[in-house]
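Deliverable D4.2, example record:
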Amino acid sequence: MDILEKLRKAPDAIKIWEAFQQELEAEKAKREEYYNLVHEDVSAGFINGQIVFHSPVKSQHWNASVNLIGLLQPFIKKIN
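Output generated by the structure prediction step:
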């Protein structure tokens, strides 16, 4: 029996459906908040209904990444 069939047979199906709709509306509002908050200068994601802000990249990390890319690039070109 699938979940929809179980819901149809549940005596409190209306309450379950209304609670589900409320959760969907809350998720929709949270997504709208996310879309209004986040722009290209903000690193964030919408994960499991939550807005998760990411730490900005530190310059040391960025420099290390650039250096690694520079070292790996000749090997990548040889493979292609």
